[in-house]
């Protein structure tokens, strides 16, 4: 679904490999909320085309793993282990 959406917007887009996506994920986890989009791209351990990087960031936002705050800084928000612990509390439960 995400790839179809991205392909419609930019038919010449280059799609990243899995190791590239994982590298960006790990870098965002380590530097949570420190960088804006372009700054993050400049400090990545491996260089890539900005177009490919934008696709990775769009994917991570759509999948609910990262978010962008009011200052434009990118932060990691995907913590499934913590969510399971919080949902076990009596006052925090999931309504069906």
Q: How would you summarize this macromolecular structure in one to three sentences?
A:
The protein is mainly α and 96 residues long.
Structural features, described:
The structure is a single chain. The chain has helices spanning 2-9, 18-30, 37-43, 50-62, 80-87, and strands spanning 66-68, 74-76. It has 96 residues and is mainly α. It has a single domain, classed as Arc Repressor Mutant, subunit A. It has a two-stranded antiparallel sheet with strand order 1-2. A hairpin with a 5-residue loop joins strand 1 (66-68) and strand 2 (74-76). Helix 2 crosses helix 4. The two termini are 26 Å apart.
Helix and strand sequence: HHHHEEH
Neighbour order of strands in the largest sheet? 1-2
Helix content: 40-55%
And the CATH topology?
A: Arc Repressor Mutant, subunit A
The major beta sheet can be summarized as: 2 strands, antiparallel
Mean pLDDT: 85
Low-confidence stretches: none
Number of domains: 1
Number of helices: 5
Shape by Cα distribution: globular
Alpha carbon gap, first and last residue:
26 Å
Radius of gyration: 16 Å
> What is the number of beta strands?
2
In CATH, the architecture is Orthogonal Bundle
Structural class: mainly alpha
Strand content: 5-15%
Q: Would you state the CATH class?
A: Mainly Alpha
Defining key terms:
single chain, 96 residues, mainly alpha, Arc Repressor Mutant, subunit A, two-stranded antiparallel ribbon, 6% strand
What is this structure's SSE topology?
Blueprint: H1 2-9, H2 18-30, H3 37-43, H4 50-62, E1 66-68, E2 74-76, H5 80-87
Antiparallel strand pairs: 1-2
């Amino acid at each position: 679904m995400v790839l179809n959406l991205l392909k419609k917007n930019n038919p010449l887009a280059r799609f990243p490999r899995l190791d590239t996506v994982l590298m960006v994920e790990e870098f965002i986890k380590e530097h949570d909320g420190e960088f804006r989009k372009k700054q993050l791209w400049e400090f990545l351990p491996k260089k890539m085309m900005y177009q490919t990087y934008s696709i990775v960031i769009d994917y991570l936002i759509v999948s609910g793993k990262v978010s962008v705050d009011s200052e434009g800084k990118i932060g990691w928000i995907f913590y499934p282990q913590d969510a399971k612990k919080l949902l076990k509390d009596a006052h925090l439960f999931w309504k069906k």
